[in-house]
């Protein structure tokens, strides 16, 4: 079991964590990035990216993250693979974190870039049929449903994008939404409604995922009409839950200020958390914009404020030494 010590400890390796690392490394903070269960973050489970500035042609999410990691390493970042299971931050800097491996990580500043994870409905059958017809990522698993009848549950951008993506694999895609209108952007809605392979089922709540995990997997969904209360069954072999995301902040419960949904609270307009020297960037503190480019932007802010925090601390030490 080893102890890894650095000026700048970063947890999370999506666009926020890696941008913090690029700026931190260039400022001489020799960052360590601990990448968790999903190295590269959510962009590694997406395909086409058309809105990251600087690329005229469509690029691939996993490729973009490989490039960001290569850039971070090139300027001096150490990437380590571990899952942080405990943090000790209450006493202030230096901050300590312990990994699943038993290794300890110590940083003069801590940058939290743990991102967010897909939410689940929490209804019967969902967990048991996970990977056997039920998924939260069409771009990861859509391929397995080639030629099959599939459903997407949700009404936001993610749900609409997943439904459109699934038409690459299936000719029969149904979007199931609990209300009578979508919250997805208009341009995506227009593409959805115009698509010949997609049907929309309005005002339907999914009460259960049906099927036998040991024999054939998902066979359908139990639905209730949210206006009339009428129940029905919808036959399908694949169902993709796309109802939003929850921040990965369990590690920090009771240790850092967070809102009622678990997003880390920061001083408005900054990445500063409730503990000086601990910074949060990306989806873990942003439930509004949640874009790769905004995550990268807040990662940059975290690194700049980390640098200032360390410089001020040095200044105070020097002043005390001179006075003492
Ligand atoms: P959203 O929070 O925008 O939408 C979640 C959807 O799931 C809503 O339609 C909501 O219904 C529905 N929902 C939530 N909980 C339940 C439940 N328990 N049962 C049934 N339905 C439920 O999440 P998204 O992941 O779609 O998007 C998150 C953010 O990321 C947004 O800001 C979005 O714009 C952005 N994004 C941008 C993309 C892009 O620019 N290309 C791509 C993907 C996401 P209701 O509407 O009734 O509340």
Protein model, in words:
The chain has 6 helices and 19 strands. It has 324 residues and is of the alpha/beta class. It has 2 domains: 3-118 and 245-323, FAD/NAD(P)-binding domain (3-Layer(bba) Sandwich); 134-241, 3-Layer(bba) Sandwich (FAD/NAD(P)-binding domain). Strands 1, 2, 5, 6, 7, 8 and 19 form a 7-stranded mixed β-sheet that branches. A 5-stranded parallel β-sheet has the order 10-17-11-12-13. A 3-stranded antiparallel β-sheet has the order 14-15-16, with no helix packed on it. α1 packs parallel to α2 and α4 packs parallel to α5. It binds NADPH dihydro-nicotinamide-adenine-dinucleotide phosphate (NDP). Residues 121, 154-159, 161, 178-179, 183, 243-245, 290 line the site of NADPH dihydro-nicotinamide-adenine-dinucleotide phosphate (NDP).
């Amino acid at each position: 079991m080893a102890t890894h010590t650095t000026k700048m400890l970063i947890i999370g390796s999506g666009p926020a964590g890696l941008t913090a690392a690029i700026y931190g490394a260039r400022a001489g903070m020799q960052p360590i990035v601990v990448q968790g269960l999903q190295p590269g973050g959510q962009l590694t489970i997406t395909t086409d990216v058309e809105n990251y500035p600087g690329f005229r042609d469509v690029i691939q999410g996993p490729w973009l993250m490989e490039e960001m990691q290569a850039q971070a390493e090139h300027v001096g970042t150490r990437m380590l693979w571990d899952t942080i299971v405990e943090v000790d931050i209450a006493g202030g800097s230096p901050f300590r974190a312990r990994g699943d491996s038993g290794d300890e990580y110590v940083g003069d500043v801590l940058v939290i870039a743990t991102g967010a994870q897909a939410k689940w409905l929490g209804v019967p059958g969902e967990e048991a049929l996970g990977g056997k017809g039920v998924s939260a990522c069409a771009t990861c698993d859509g391929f397995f449903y080639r030629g099959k009848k599939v459903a997407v549950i949700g009404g936001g951008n993610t749900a609409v994008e997943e439904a459109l993506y699934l038409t690459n694999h299936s000719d029969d895609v149904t979007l199931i939404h609990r209300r009578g209108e979508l919250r997805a952007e208009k341009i995506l809605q227009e593409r959805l409604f115009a698509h010949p392979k997609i049907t929309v089922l309005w005002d339907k709540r999914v009460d259960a995922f049906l099927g036998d995990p040991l024999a054939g997997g998902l066979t359908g969904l139990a639905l209730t009409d949210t206006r009339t209360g009428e129940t029905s069954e919808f036959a399908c072999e694949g169902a993709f839950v796309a109802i939003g995301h929850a921040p990965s902040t369990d590690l920090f419960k009771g240790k850092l200020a967070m809102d009622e949904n678990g997003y880390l609270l920061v001083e408005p307009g900054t990445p500063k958390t409730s503990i000086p020297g601990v910074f949060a960037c990306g989806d873990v503190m942003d439930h509004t914009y949640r874009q790769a480019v905004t995550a990268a932007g807040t990662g940059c802010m975290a690194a700049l404020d980390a640098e200032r925090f360390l410089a001020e601390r040095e200044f105070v030490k020097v002043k005390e030494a001179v006075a003492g």
